[in-house]
User: What shape does this take?
Amino acid sequence: MAPVPRRTAARPLFPTSSRRGARAGIAIAIATLSALALSACTFGGDTTDGGTVDRGDFADDGCTSVVVATSSEKVNMLDALAKAFKESPEHDGLDECATVRPVNVSSGDATRFLTAGGDWPDDDPRRWPTLWSPASTVWTERVAAAASPSLVGEPVSFTHTPVVFGVPETMAKALGWPDAEIGIADFEKLCADPAGWGSVGKPIWGSFKISKTNPNTSTTGLSAILMQSYEASGKTTDLTADDVAAAEEFSRVFEECVIHYGDTTGKVLTTLYDETQNGSGGSGYVSAVALEETSLLNYNQGNPDSHTVEPGETLTPPKEKLVAVYPSGGSIWSDNPVTVLGADWVTPEQATAGAAFIDFLATEQAQSILPLYGFRPLDESVPLGNLFTERFGVDPAGPAVTLPRPAVDVVSAALDQWTQIRKPSSVLEVIDISGSMDDPIGDGRSKLDGAIEGAQATLGHFRSTDEVGVWAFTTDVESAAGKNLIELRGVSPLGSDGETLRSSIADLRYANRQGTPLYDAIDAAYEEMIARAEPGRINAIVVLSDGQDTDSSISIDSLITKIGKSSGEGGGDAPVRIFPIAYGEGADTGALQRIAEATGGQWFDASDPAKIDLVFASVINNF
Assistant: This one.
């Protein structure tokens, strides 16, 4: 079957009419891929956003290398498509062979890289992309508007997935699912009602809690805030900046239900999965998760973080699945464009091979691969297969209403509004300054230099009304915060103190550095934050450590028991969540992971200390 001609910007590769006639060769290829996909469970979701390229074997195989920078949910699928491309007529038509290599770069991070100008921020030019496939055309339009239309070429969609709300099945039934229509306004009412779940007869579940990603880095988060404005306006098309402004109070109430933001749904889903599997149920953690349908399919298969499953690995489905609530007011679809970048580093040979791969994505063979990975094909003749069923929590007929992507100025207005109305934060940063922090990290900086610069960079994220405090810990020091603690700033509204605090953090270079009383520091920080925690804020502790605890009086087990009290059934109205950063190879990742899980927080891997700046940026997206 001949590929469908390429089209411009927001238009899909396929016309609305369906095409018929699968060929035997395609059927055999798809059967093989189906077995591979089901055994590996490599379909994915909007999960691992990080600013770094984390996939790809770049050994020279004698072929033109075509790197695809793609949102994480498509990496595994594009691996399969790349293999199929090698055997396609589109590949055979090239003058020389080509190897397509997908790498994970979040949509928001790639947008920032491209609009910043200059080279791609990776030390290895072999990983600089020829193709870009973000989750939504929203991102290509933003680059075209902020940088140059020629930089993003002519993006075309090759697959799509709707943004939905994943709700634990028991909770969804309490809201009338599957018979009742459920809209974002219904969630907003639960947020506004002090009784929370008690308003529908389930007081033991506590307050209604929503998980959303940061719209500055995540397509799902961006789509969610636009869907809120659509819901408040009562519109299903032609959303304007004035509509966004009029929806401010509605969205503000909705944001009050958010547990924390974050750059990935995968981390939230992993926490939910762990709590569900460990018998506590997810109700103490989250009630509804804004996510792509493909992420929900992945979760219900037992792969909440969308990792690539190794041969022999067995996945265990969650004890309670998430069901997709397709909002009655409509869903925005992630339209997954792909384009050849007009960047200086893209060679003519790479551009030609990249264009051939895009043409291949329009073929029936490629479209038939997509449903195996939880994505809906644009070719209407391709069956959805066995994943798109009630068994896996989805409705193949949903959503009933499709919301069009608004204009760029409307998207910008929504992002600007979110910056002002997002849930306020109260955050205490706790930094390890023990002797091992003097170790170099390979770029002319010490570990402490990296930690200082990362902590300083976070300050620009906070509003003046957000509460921010900074402590450091080691032995043989004392301050108002207590023994073995240095209080650079107590937790209070940041106001205009940003520059002063930056200077104070820089002074840590000259502080006394001895032992590592990690558990005592976390214990003291938790006592401080739980005493001042408020229901209307994201109450959090960010703790950075590069080593094992050596000097604490409290044990890890006693600490876990203490900090885990607010994360059980019902969850409390003002939980304090802990977000540890495991810094360098010597960090006690096991203990830090336990600490995060005990509070419903997330831990972050900075085992490559040179990447600490990016890790801090990922952490701060939670607030």
Remarks:
- The chain has 22 helices and 17 strands.
- Confidence is low (pLDDT under 50) at residues 1-56.
- The radius of gyration is 24 Å.
